[in-house]
Specification:
By secondary structure, the protein is an alpha+beta fold. The strands form four sheets. It has a five-stranded mixed β-sheet. Strands 3, 4, 7, 8 and 9 form a five-stranded antiparallel β-sheet that branches. It is globular.
Length: 507
């Protein structure tokens, strides 16, 4: 695998055997398994998948070794099937090129060669040790010295095994560094200077933060921003060659280069985005200051035809999202984002260009590494997740979360401050309320929001005596709609229910 990944770094930088197989696995798993993985591993779901793949590869390697030792070419056949599986996975990826087929074939060939060498050494070791055992039985005193040939044969086997393992580990590290750097893309990003916004973001109100320790920052730092997508490795998209195409049901097709986009009058806005897999009280949500060009202006150049009601956006890695056309052409700040919190988009968050759409879950809107906008109809096209059981349109639900104190953490009797965030993107929050032990609702103090497209912070001080408390929170949006109390899982269109914590108040 190390050999395959290293060769892929030169021959197929955007696609390797490991990422191809991993991508195929991600595509194949049912939505319920995806939800389980995110609920258990959170944003470490891809690392967990890689660890799982490594364990499967190790098990296959062990099986191949046993089979090859017992019957010649049996283990090599396992390695051959493994290589063909890699080739098949590569053929399913949108980044596939003829050169992408070379790394899995080379990986399989290298595996077969190493397997043959190791099995020969192992057999030689067994034969030498068997001969030494016969000589020992013939020794009347029973104190025969170990046969040097047997010792050398055994040592030779473990030396080759150790060198192979060390080389694989070193190769994996080198491959990771090579591919993780995304070659020239990271350097190209470092050279980019973002232009000033023609329409700057409004200043953050002085009273927009609750000031309660433990509450998440009002603007999420890039390094802490959640990442949920299907890309096992970050696509390497060079801004110098990036092109966005507007196709489909339009009067004229439009192409936009990165230089063209950077020359447009850009808009800067604070926008909170969320993943549909975010459970009640979850952290798959973040607020950032985005810089980009309004999508409606690009679509206006293409002139969508009558009857179109959806835009199918496509990522460089083939992922797609179906977004309602009216959402991309109304007055909201849906944008082709090039900046995040004052710097070019991080590679893992969609560099060079991604979509940001207020009011919709990311699976129907937040396409990273975007390369195409196809104007179409919901009746004719579907995004990646819709055939897998998720709803078509994905509007974000009004919700709220308790961040302070943490559930199950003891607090001292007296005045206890509860604090957290609430959101109803593109609608705004009117009020947040808390209740203890299913008692009456108490209205919390609501900080001033940056805008209706961002989350709001809130806090409430309550005098508590020693005991156990169940604490729940609910939000009401500016349209007068309170969040749904019914507990539902994320699938098919977002989780509902009141975030509930348990607090142990000590005397």
């Amino acid at each position: 695998m190390a050999a395959g990944e290293l060769v892929a770094g030169f021959a197929s930088p955007s696609l390797s055997p490991l990422t191809a197989v991993g991508g195929a696995v991600i595509d194949a798993v049912p939505p319920g398994v995806k939800d389980w993985a995110i609920s258990v591993f959170g944003t470490s779901d891809k690392a967990a998948l890689l660890v799982g793949m490594a364990l499967v590869i190790a098990a296959l390697a062990a099986l191949a070794g046993v089979l090859e030792h017992r019957r010649r070419f049996a283990g090599a056949a396992v390695m051959g099937v493994f290589g063909l599986a890699g080739v098949a996975a590569v053929l399913t990826r949108s980044q596939m090129t003829p050169m992408s087929l070379l790394p899995p074939l080379l990986a399989a060939g290298t595996a077969v060669a190493l397997l043959r060498v190791l099995v020969r050494r192992l057999r030689a070791s067994y034969e030498a040790m068997s001969g030494h055992a016969t000589a020992s039985q013939q020794a009347a005193a029973g104190d025969a010295m170990p046969d040097p040939t047997a010792v050398r044969s055994r040592r030779s086997f473990f030396q080759v095994l150790g060198v192979t393992a060390t080389a694989s580990a070193a190769g994996g590290v080198v491959a990771g560094i090579w591919r993780g750097a995304s070659m020239a893309v990271s350097e190209a990003r470092a050279r980019i200077t973002l232009p000033s916004a023609a329409s700057p973001a409004n200043p953050v109100p002085a009273d927009a933060e609750s000031g309660v320790a433990g509450t998440p920052p009002l603007v999420t730092p890039n390094r802490d921003f959640y990442r949920i997508d299907t890309a096992l490795s970050v696509p390497a998209v060079n801004p110098d060659t990036w092109v966005l195409k507007v196709t489909g049901m339009v009067a004229r097709e439009v192409q936009l280069s990165f230089a063209d986009l950077m020359a447009k009058p850009l808009t800067e806005r604070h926008i909170t985005i969320a993943c549909v897999s975010n459970g009640v009280g979850g952290d798959l949500i973040g607020n950032a200051r985005w810089l980009g060009w309004p999508v409606r202006e690009l679509l206006a150049l293409a002139v969508p035809q009558p009857g179109a009601d959806m835009v199918l956006s496509r990522s460089a890695d083939g992922w797609t999202a179906g977004t309602p056309l009216d959402v991309l052409t109304d007055n909201r700040d849906a944008m082709l984002a090039v900046g995040m919190n004052g710097e070019p988009l991080p590679l893992e968050h969609g560099f060079p260009v991604r979509l940001v759409v207020p009011g919709l879950y990311g699976y129907v809107s937040a396409t990273k590494w975007v390369t195409e906008l196809k104007v179409t109809r919901f009746a004719d096209d579907t995004g990646y997740w819709t055939p897998r059981g998720w709803s078509e349109r994905g509007p974000i639900k009004t919700s709220s979360r308790i961040d302070v104190p943490r559930s199950g953490r003891p607090v001292n009797a007296g005045t206890v401050v509860f604090a957290g965030v609430a959101w109803a993107q593109h609608t705004g929050i009117r009020k947040v309320e808390l209740r203890l032990n299913r008692g009456p609702w108490r209205e919390a103090g609501l900080a001033t929001g940056i805008s209706t497209d961002t989350w709001y912070q809130w806090k409430l001080a309550v005098d508590l005596t020693p005991g156990q408390y169940e604490v729940q929170v609910r939000a009401t949006n500016l349209a007068g709609e309170s969040q749904d109390e019914t507990a539902r899982p994320p699938a098919p269109d977002g989780a509902t229910g009141f975030h509930t914590i348990r607090v142990d108040v000590k005397s």
